[in-house]
Design brief:
Blueprint (H helix, E strand, L loop, with lengths): L1 E6 L5 H10 L12 E4 L4 E6 L1 H10 L4 E5 H7 L3 E6 L5 E8 L13 E4 L2 H10 L5 E4 L15 E6 L3 H5 L2 E11 L1 E6 L4 H20 E9 L3 H7 L7 E4 L5 E9 L3 H11 L2 E7 L6
Parallel strand pairs: 1-3, 1-4, 7-8, 7-9
Antiparallel strand pairs: 2-3, 4-11, 5-11, 6-9, 6-10, 12-14, 12-15, 13-14
Helix pairs in contact: 3-4
Bound molecules: adenosine-5'-triphosphate, 1-O-pyrophosphono-5-O-phosphono-alpha-D-ribofuranose and magnesium ion.
Length: 281
């Protein structure tokens, strides 16, 4: 039975469980449950703190896990990224008091508060910089005003927490994070993860594409299908009405309204959009 770690709390927890449900797996119904067996799919899910997930996967005690890229890097364990899951996006950034005119050149020699010492120490080591890393558990934005650090390195999503603490970011992000599927850094990992990866990829495609169908005069077909080339090629079927055809193609959800406008202008009619609930390409 495949053993998979899923975040039990925090930002990644609900979207991770939803994605697994969308991929056809059974998930816990009670937030206090820490294990859920899915006999039909021969998988067992373990609900753990996202920070600990890389540890369990790196040691080989669990086969696969869902966590943040920043947490994987921070852990330094022998686990690797198998798939970007497209949620939980955040940057990991330097920040200092507004008006302190901080820059990356001032990082060496400073006191840096962070809940991600592994990420910060990797940055320092790569540049041969020495600095004092103050490891905190959270609410890192308070560290500067409380006097334990000169600057911080932390997760930034909307930037609201930083702003409210009177801090501003500086320099390039140390990394761009999102939720990822991870496996142990060894030979068997890809094979173990193959079915789960295919299912999750199906969910990702279903989320970012819709199915577009329309009728168009046969003499306009080339122009119309140039707008909707599909993934392989669009499906074209005859219509009962002489000289018209029906077309079906997958299009990117983000582009569908522009494409519908352009198809209508071209003369296509009965333009219909349907959600895709899952797929294998
Ligand atoms: N706004 C956000 N705040 C915190 N973490 C975020 C945010 N958006 C995405 N993440 C990602 O979530 C992961 C951190 O999850 P974790 O559950 O440890 O923190 P949390 O959501 O802040 O929960 P808690 O504060 O309860 O520990 C990281 O990979 C981080 O990049
Ligand atoms: O840019 P924002 O949208 O404001 O989000 C980023 C903030 O959210 C998280 O804190 P959280 O609320 O999880 O508290 P914590 O620091 O105790 O983990 C993170 O550590 C940042 O502080
Ligand atoms: Mg947090």
């Amino acid at each position: 039975m495949l053993r998979i770690a899923v975040p039990n709390k925090g930002t990644l927890s609900a979207p991770a469980a939803q994605m697994l449900r969308d991929a056809g797996y059974r998930q816990r119904t009670d937030a206090k449950d820490l294990v859920c067996r899915d006999e039909d799919n021969n998988v067992e899910f373990f609900y753990l703190r996202p920070r600990d997930i890389a540890t369990y996967v790196g040691s080989g005690d669990l086969d696969l896990g869902i966590t943040g890229r920043d947490l994987l890097v921070d852990s330094g364990v022998p686990a690797r990224e198998l798939l970007d899951l497209g949620f939980g996006g955040a940057t990991f950034r330097w920040a200092a008091p507004a008006g302190a005119s901080s820059s990356e050149s001032g990082i060496g020699g400073s006191r840096i508060a962070t809940a991600y010492p592994g990420v910060v120490e990797r940055y320092l080591a790569e540049r041969d910089l020495k600095a004092e890393v103050v490891r905190l558990d959270g609410a890192v934005e308070n560290a500067v005003r409380l006097g334990v650090a000169d600057l911080i390195a932390d997760v930034v999503e909307t930037g609201t927490t930083l702003r409210q603490a009177g801090l501003v970011t500086f320099g390039e992000p140390l990394l761009r994070s999102s939720a990822i599927l991870i496996g142990r850094d060894d030979e068997g990992t890809e094979a173990k993860a193959a079915q789960l990866v295919r299912r999750l990829q199906g969910v990702l495609v279903a989320r970012s594409y819709v199915m577009l169908a329309y009728d168009v005069r046969a003499d306009l077909l080339e122009n119309a299908t140039a707008l909707t080339p599909g993934i392989e090629s669009p499906t074209v079927s005859p219509l009962h009405r002489e000289g018209w055809v029906a077309v079906q193609a997958m299009v990117r959800r983000a582009e569908v309204h522009r494409i519908m406008d352009e198809l209508y202008e071209l003369g296509a009619r009965a333009i219909l959009v349907t959600d895709i609930s899952n797929c294998r390409l």
